[in-house]
């Protein structure tokens, strides 16, 4: 399975697919076992701009009710999404 955005560059936000780039069982396996911090979306601050979706290197952020959610099975905790969010809507929190 190839990442969607490499094949078709969307012109509008509505062209961006709802789902994440990968599904377990194809060429990837769940990789979050070693993560020690995780990004958490603060819904009250999120405006649904999708910048985090576009910059997540693993394609694990997906659209959810005009905002975004994270597939924690595949998120590696790199924090790039937090860096790209201009609205302070992503906090990195320690894994329990
Ligand atoms: S970059 Fe921030 S404001 Fe934009 S969708 Fe992601 S969490 Fe929401
Ligand atoms: S921490 Fe990294 S892998 Fe996880 S959602 Fe953010 S950008 Fe993607």
Which helices and strands, and how do they pair?
Elements: H1 4-7, E1 37-41, H2 51-55, E2 61-64, E3 67-70, H3 80-84, E4 90-94
Antiparallel strand pairs: 1-4, 2-3
Q: What's the quick description here?
A:
The chain is α+β, with helices and mostly antiparallel strands.
Which key terms come to mind for this protein?
globular; two-stranded antiparallel ribbon; alpha+beta; 3 helices; binds iron/sulfur cluster; two-stranded antiparallel sheet; 96 residues; Alpha-Beta Plaits; 19% strand
Number of helices: 3
Uncertain runs: none
Percent strand equals 15-25%
Outline, from the CA principal axes? Answer: globular
Radius of gyration: 13 Å
What's the main sheet like? Answer: 2 strands, antiparallel
Attached small molecules? iron/sulfur cluster
The SSE string, one letter per element, is: HEHEEHE
Number of domains: 1
- Look up the CATH topology: Alpha-Beta Plaits
Instruction: Report the CATH C-level class.
Output: Alpha Beta
Would you count the extended β strands for me? 4
Which structural class matches the secondary elements?
alpha+beta
Any idea what the CATH architecture is? 2-Layer Sandwich
Strand order of the main beta sheet, please?
1-4
């Amino acid at each position: 399975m190839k990442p969607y955005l490499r094949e078709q560059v969307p012109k509008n936000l509505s062209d961006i697919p709802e789902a994440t780039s990968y599904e377990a069982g194809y060429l990837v396996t769940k990789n979050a076992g070693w993560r020690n911090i995780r990004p958490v979306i603060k819904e009250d601050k999120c405006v649904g701009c999708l910048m985090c979706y576009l910059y997540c290197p693993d394609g694990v952020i997906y659209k959810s009710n005009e905002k975004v959610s994270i597939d924690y099975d595949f998120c590696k905790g790199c924090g790039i999404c937090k860096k790209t969010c201009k609205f302070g809507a992503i906090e990195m929190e320690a894994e329990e």
